[in-house]
Write a structure and sequence with these properties.
The protein has 290 residues and is of the alpha/beta class. 38% of the residues lie in helices and 13% in strands. The protein has an 8-stranded mixed beta sheet with strand order 1-2-3-4-5-6-7-8, with helices on both faces. Helix 5 runs parallel beside helix 6, helix 6 crosses helix 8 and helix 9 runs parallel beside helix 10. The chain starts with 14 loop residues before the first helix and ends with a helix.
């Protein structure tokens, strides 16, 4: 087993604050990607009183070999109370910015778009000043479903590219690289006011040139925000880590991305899609859209 380098160590969370957030999540019977995907930043984010809510789960209809979320293709009804419970959690946690993501729900005709809309709507009722970021699956290329989500006007629409084109068949076998790019392109066309965001994992065998190509492709569809983080193997049953990327290399990609014109590039070993997502509010003030 490969030993993790020192730059991947994280501080132990302050149990009192982490426990407080978990108590609210358990009380309202909500899932977070922080827990379901074994995120290494759970201590820091829970300690700061933030969480990324995972709706329509906790099981996913796809079985990507890098992901720690459970796999279950059994069709399930949507829970009509989930948006109400999520909105209450946002209010009780007093969040300034909330991230709402989901498992893939390929069993649903709209991929779960209606549930995203319900969560946005209910959150705005209780917390009208809270900015909302949705981290969505590819919706199997259903652009009508994408338009439904965008009509609810989330401030940020995030869709992760996850990896380089060459590794898609291995890392994301039910996804398509060009489809993910098309989703971000369509978002810009359908909603010019929405900030678009994507993220990739590294350490799976990609080259520096291939990472830069993804970055150029994302700028080619006018993606605003990019996150780059180290892939960490959740268990022995998941894809193994090919390489631990150094902080220096992450800094190099950040500088390259800034030169390409991204409004924000968050690139570090522990970066995840929703890590420090609240900082997008600063970006919105620097680059307002009306």
């Amino acid at each position: 087993m490969t030993v993790k380098p020192h730059w991947l160590r994280v501080k132990a969370p302050q149990i009192q604050r982490v426990g407080s957030v978990k108590d609210i999540l358990r009380d309202l019977n909500l899932n977070t990607v922080c827990e379901e995907a074994s995120c290494p930043n759970i201590g820091e984010c829970f300690n700061a009183g933030t969480a990324t809510f995972l709706i329509m789960g906790p099981a996913c209809t796809r079985a990507c070999p890098y992901c720690d979320i459970d796999f279950d293709k059994t069709p399930k009804e949507l829970d009509a109370t989930e948006p109400l419970r999520l909105a209450e959690a946002v209010q009780r946690l007093n969040l300034n910015h909330v991230v709402i993501t989901s498992v893939n729900r390929d069993d649903l005709p709209d991929g779960g778009a209606s549930q995203f809309v319900a969560c946005i709507t209910e959150t705005r009722k209780l917390s009208p000043e809270t900015t909302i970021e949705v981290l969505i699956p590819d919706l199997c290329g259903n652009w009508n479903a994408l338009e439904i989500i965008l009509q609810a006007q989330p401030e940020v629409l995030n869709h992760n590219t996850e990896t380089i084109a060459r590794l898609y068949r291995k890392v994301r076998p039910q996804g398509e690289y060009l489809r993910s790019l098309e989703l971000l392109k369509k978002t810009r066309e359908l909603s010019s006011l929405t900030y678009t965001k994507s993220g990739i994992m590294v350490g799976l065998g990609e080259t520096d040139a291939e990472v830069k190509q993804v970055m150029e492709d994302l700028r080619g569809v006018d993606c605003d925000i990019l996150t780059i983080g180290q892939y960490l193997q959740p268990s022995q049953h998941h894809l193994g880590v090919k390489e631990f990327i150094t902080p220096t290399q992450f800094n190099s990609w950040r500088e390259f991305g800034e030169k390409l014109g991204f409004l924000q590039v968050v690139s570090s070993p522990l970066t995840r899609s929703s890590y420090h997502a609240g900082e997008v509010q600063k970006l919105m003030k620097l680059y307002p859209r009306y």
